[in-house]
Amino acid sequence: MTALSGLGTPRLASPELLRSLFRRHAAGVAVITARGETGPVGFTATSLTSVSAEPPMLSFGIGTGASSWPAISETDHVGVHILGEHQQELAATFARSGADRFGPATAWREGPEGVPVLDDVLAWMVCRVAGRVPAGDHRIVLAEVVLGDPSGPGRPLVYHQGRFNGLRD
C-alpha cells in the first residue's frame, strides 16, 4: 500500500485494523438482556442502532461465540437498556466474560414478557425479536420495540478509545 497525500499509510483489512478504527468512534452504551433457559443473560453492546420509526425497530450485533448468544438466538423478546454515565461499573460487569452479571451488585427485576429489566438506566425497552441476520462471526438482531420508558435521569454513557466515559460539555 502506498501513502495517500495527507491520509497516512492505509493498512489491509484485518480484525485488528477494524478494532483500531472503531476505537476512534464514540458509541453509546447499552445492555441487552433476555430470559435464558437457566436464568437471565445479558451483555454490553455499543452496536445499538435505530432502524425504523414505523414500525419502531432497532438493531444490535452479537457474536455467535458470546455466552449470551444461545439465549438470544432462541428468545422472542429482549430488553434493551441505555446506560447513564453513572453506570460504568454495570457496563463493565456485563462486558466481562465469566462475570456474575445478575448477582447482588446488579439491581433488576423481571419485566414484561419475562425480560430482565435493569434499574436506574436512562431508558429501557422491551422488544420483540423480528430477525437475526448472519454477519460474519456475528448476528445482527432486528427487534421491534413493544414498550419502553425514556424517563431515567442523567446523561448517557459512551465508549471511546477502549474506555467508558461520560459526555463533556
TrEMBL record:
Q: What class of enzyme is it?
A: oxidoreductase
Q: Give one GO term, molecular function aspect.
A: oxidoreductase activity
Residues spanning the signal sequence = none
| Protein keywords | Oxidoreductase
Please name one Pfam family that this protein belongs to.
Flavin_Reduct
Q: Where is the Flavin reductase like domain?
A: 22-166
EC id: 1.-.-.-
| UniProt cross-references to SUPFAM superfamilies, sorted A to Z | FMN-binding split barrel
Superkingdom of origin organism: Bacteria
What PANTHER family does the entry give?
A: FLAVIN REDUCTASE, FMN REDUCTASE (NADH) RUTF
Q: Mind telling me what this protein is named?
A: Flavin reductase family protein
Give the organism, scientific name.
Answer: Streptomyces lanatus
